[in-house]
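User: Here's a chain of 377 residues. Predict its fold as tokens.
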Amino acid sequence: MLQEFVFIFSLIWILIYALLISSYIWSWLKLKPFVCLKTGIPSDFIVSVIIPMRNEADNIASIVQSLKSQNFPTRNLEIILIDDSSEDQTWDMAQKLITSFDYFHLIKLENGKRGKKEALKKAIEYAQGHLIVTSDADCILPPNWIKTIVCYYIRYSPRLISGPVFMLGRGWFSAFQTIEFMSLTASAAGAISIKKSTMSNAANMAFEKSLYLEFLSSNADQTTSGDDVFLLHFAKKKYDSKIHFLHSRDAIVQTYTQSSLSDFFRQRIRWTSKSHKYKDIDTILCAVIVLFSNFSLFACIILSVLQKFSLSWAAVLLLLKAVPDFILLFYASGFYRCRKLLIGFIPFSILYIFYIAFVGLLGSFLKFEWKGRKYSR
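Assistant: Prediction complete.
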């Protein structure tokens, strides 16, 4: 009796999950690749690129160089580096690196304020541009990144653009993180394409300054983290058709995987910790479906080990979940040009079940840490 109940319960959730992922596959395939052929920038158009920094002495030279190397006219550009009370040489190094480049601005978050959210808020209020573009100090930016975003904005006039982000690293642990993150970005892109936006990433995001000020004045977000997702949810309520995913290889921002298990779990718990504040129904439903489908598989595997559930039934359920996952990753990895990573798909799929159960529980109870600071949920 227990076996039948567990199987039927799990089957229902996995079929719902398969339908959800299938909708993302269908919408991903509908996305048309974008190539910027001619920008045609108005002379008075200004784009403001904002990079928040905290303890980024190891990365600041790289990000500044990639910003200097952008294939974009500096007369239409301002770059704002905002320091969030760094405890290393980030500020001093940044000052030296941007000397004689008048389109760079270096500002500090005032005393009493802290955190990435406050840094972004101050920088956006300081910005002169109509269009705000954000990334992180530990990212690698392609030379046509700004050009492609602005070109897309001028052609289609979205109010918010979510861009592709790819994780770099070596070894099986990095490969697991890359595949997991790739599934998230592909799902987010698919959700945006069918007007069911759920996620975005401030590592590669653009939006109108007026949209952010509207969001700020609405007092819609009382969290200490997650302006990217909450801004997306705010925009979705009023301007759903004006939220776009930029499907362009020229706009892929690269970042690095976490090098240790402790850093990895801290990052994922930080991402998960804000989920209890979500009010968007599509995001909540997506999270519930992912959690219940994985928790049910987790239970099936544990019961199989205890010889209280058929191993063949567990294998069938795993297969039903794995097929749509693999198809989504197959197409996404083609876009990111990393299909060789799919060699580890089967073991990573099993590992993911245990990982999501662990992080899903911890993220609901623990405080999270970012850049040496602890924050409450």
